[in-house]
Amino acid sequence: MGNALRFLFVKCSKTTTATGDSDSLEPPYRPTVSGVSAFAHDLFNFEITSQVPEGLSQHVVSSRKAQANWYGKLLQAWREAKPPPKTPEMVAMLVIETLNRHQKADVEGLLEFYGLPNPSINVGIYPRMRTRLPEPVLFEMHTLPVDGNTVPDGDGINVYVSTVDPRESSIVPRDVLIAADQRSKARAKKNYDKADELRQKIIESGYQVINLQNEQILARKYRIRLRGIDAPENSMPYGEEAKQELINLVHGKCLRVLVYGEDRYGRCVADVYCDGIFVQEVMLKKGLAWHYAAYDQRIELATWEREARAKRIGLWASSNPEKPWEWRKDRREAVGSVQHKIT
User: Fold this and answer.
1) Where would I find the TNase-like domain in this sequence (predicted)?
2) Catalytic residue chosen out of the listed positions 225, 227, 245, 305
3) Are residues 205 and 303 located together in one domain of the fold?
4) Is 225 a catalytic residue?
5) pLDDT band at residue 292, thresholds of 50, 70 and 90?
6) Catalytic one among 233, 245, 256, 305?
7) Catalytic-role residue among 183, 227, 267, 305
8) Is residue 145 part of a domain?
9) Contact, 84 vs 78, CB < 8 A?
10) Residue 233 annotated among the catalytic residues of the structure
11) 174 catalytically annotated
């Protein structure tokens, strides 16, 4: 780790122009190149001394103790980055990704301190650094903070993803962008009836304008179906308990969502992580969901269900709990029978 930082520090310090004349390098290039070097130098210094750089407090609002916490996280992130970031943009993204949950003023102040580019995006909705995804995963999402009131049951979540995200920004319908712009102008003129009308148009298109940190964020709505588990329906025993546990897990949190496909209801079938915690694992271990083996044969899911069964916790307190897929089938058949009699 130390060698990698020393190498980058030396490499970035020896800046040259395209012609190789280091003396001819003029602003604005010098600040950003030296910023990468300074950042690497300060991480190297922190690794040895646990001290944050002098002067940083003039750019950020948090205490030096908090700053030390940041540098510990940044040092770990640098260790895990392969290859280590070598450009101002890459370093800025590492800072943004690592300090995603910290105050906006602190993140922007840190970028300013090193002369690194600032995307001017809210903390909590910065585009994430792209990593290679497992082969079955179609795409990855990072959500805005989840509103627990939008959780429908124990295995579903409604989430919003900022359209600032590179993947989202390329697929926003033009009429949604126009409506969002017109709504902003209507609000500025205090024409709230018009603004509400435009907001409804945005919602009907599958988007929403969300107030986050006193800024209006255009975001796309996704309905998520937790992959590999099946929780009791709300009206079943332990259905409400499962729903409440899921709310407790995700409310107010930004989620990492790995999407594997789409079900027949248009929901994204996905693995969901909250603060590094695998949500499906929690639901299974607490006995609030079944392993949905018909659609997912992962051994670990079966193991977590088996452990909960052995402990007789959650729905396994019952000797023979009804399976939610059988419960749904019975309800469909009952409805079909009634409709047949009517016709």
Assistant:
1) 151-318
2) 225
3) yes
4) yes
5) very high
6) 233
7) 267
8) yes
9) yes
10) yes
11) no
